[in-house]
Amino acid sequence: MILQALKEYYDRKAADPASEMAPSGWEWKEIPFVLVLSQDGTPVSLNSTVEGAGKNKRAKCYLIPQGVKKTSGIASNILWENPEYALGVAIKGSPERVAEQHHAFKQRLADLGDIPDSGLNAVKKFMEQPDKASILQMFGDKWSQFIESGANITFQLAGETRIVANSPLIKETISNKLSAIIDKLAVCLITGEEDSIERLHTAIKGVWGAQSSGANIVSFNSAAFASFGKKQGCNSPIGKVAAFAYTTALNHLLRKDSKQRMQVGDASTIFWSAKPTIFEEQMLDFFAEPPKDDPDRNSRAVESLFRAPQTGTIPEDREAETCFYVLGLSPNASRISVRFWIMDTVAGMAVKIRQHFEDLRIVHGPKEHEAISLFRLLVSTAALGKSENIAPNLSGDMMRSILGGTQYPQTILQAIVRRIRTEHEINYPRAAFIKACINRSIRFNNHNQEREITVSLDTTNNNIGYRLGRLFSVLERIQERANPGINATIRDRFYGAASGAPVTVFGNLMRLKNHHLSKLDNAGERINYEKLIGEIMSGIEDFPAHLPLADQGRFAIGYYHQKQDFFTKKTDKE
């Protein structure tokens, strides 16, 4: 189903000339250097196509003949290669092997035949030069950069803007040669039609953590994986047309500047719809980190999603039933493993994403963004707030829960509670995540008709954990008012014990608050705090010896709600 959906996506994009989807037998690839030749094969210039600086340093992309599958043997590409193949310049390999590689490159040119193309003829004439390195040294620094980088190079005829490989005659010749290749025929598993079976599938690039040269999602490299005497791709018969389509679609979706991919933990996540939809264009804004120059992009996207039932903007009636796909990929040695695969309609996906953000809604400060990205949520569960400390499988499980509309992973609540007890910090993302986890758990396992946690302070909530969290926040507030500028509060010393084993500390804290109240000069403020404590204590019969995990989460929410209420103006509350 995955490969079939990818092929359908390729067919859809290939039919659109503006999509720049590579046709069969071709690919878009960054080529850092271009050698410009005159018609007699004399080098005119060596141009670098690299632009930008630092992480934004990129070479220009060209449409070139699809690269061959590189193994330990010698196999050359057509009209583009590295210095050893294209020019016969030894960098890493032995001179003997480099000579064989260069011969293979020239043979691929000869295989194109006698085409009346001036660009190809210029390249062939240049290839006749015995010592190309000494000729190209006249380009000085550019030549040095090219050799040091070992980057790919292609060719261009002087006076033309296109590269030689993009000549109409060469394109037609390569297409004809591809259509003339007929290997062992079999029924393709994707199309159901008879086709030549692809023995080695094109490598997939762009999966975070995988080999830079690419990895495979379909491959058989050992006799233990084969059956009935079949070798490699014949064990999973996929036709050449379908194999090219799904690999090209995957590489297109995973490219660096793709707006249909995001990194969710260690899972490179891509998404697309069966037909062009507005939802496909906005999916990235729901979950990814907003750009620094537009920090409110996520919030606007989520706001439009909540307005969708009234405005009909997402999804529109004509696209509501369109299939929508989400695929999560992660590296696994030399292969790529599928972490999650989610398929739904655009309307169904929109409802589940809207519910996710509804579950996360909680009162927050004016400087906090309404929409919390998935990365910020996951980082809130990690030690020291570092992305490398996020639990390995948590990101994939979380995305599956959101888009599948299921209960969040049980490990999330444990991780957040543990982080709060260790770091004594209850910030906006952690509070929102705890609320969402508990409310989803109530929704899926509600046997006692338990109330869900509200967005802001709920004075009618009689849950012992929530009440104790509110009480702890009030006691800390009294301490801060009695000792302005205090460095460490009761939260830094007693939060872990108060949220886990309340009976061990609350008796002492209640006695301590009397001392703090006596230091307040404002009698009205003192009375207000005493009334607030009385209101909270009216729902507490006794301090329990232990709070279960869910109530420890409610303790954190009660503390957070009460603290936010202290910083909310009376007019805002109304």
Keywords:
single chain; 574 residues; alpha+beta; 4 domains; 4-stranded mixed sheet; 4-stranded antiparallel sheet; 21 helices; 12 strands; elongated
Describe the model.
37% of the residues are buried. This protein has 574 residues and is α+β, with helices and mostly antiparallel strands. The chain has 4 domains: 2-11 and 14-21 and 182-253, no CATH class; 31-177, no CATH class; 262-329 and 338-449, no CATH class; 456-574, no CATH class. β7 and β8 form a beta hairpin. The strands form 4 sheets. A 4-stranded mixed β-sheet has the order 3-2-6-5. α14 runs antiparallel to α15, α16 runs antiparallel to α17 and α16 (464-482) runs antiparallel to α19 (523-537). It has helices at residues 2-14, 83-87, 95-111, 118-127, 132-136, 141-149, 168-180, 240-253, 278-287, 297-311, 346-360, 374-379, 394-404, 410-423, 428-444, 464-482, 490-500, 506-518, 523-537, 549-566, 570-573, and strands at 26-30, 33-37, 43-48, 61-65, 80-81, 153-157, 185-187, 194-196, 261-264, 267-273, 323-332, 335-345. The protein is elongated, with a radius of gyration of 32 Å.
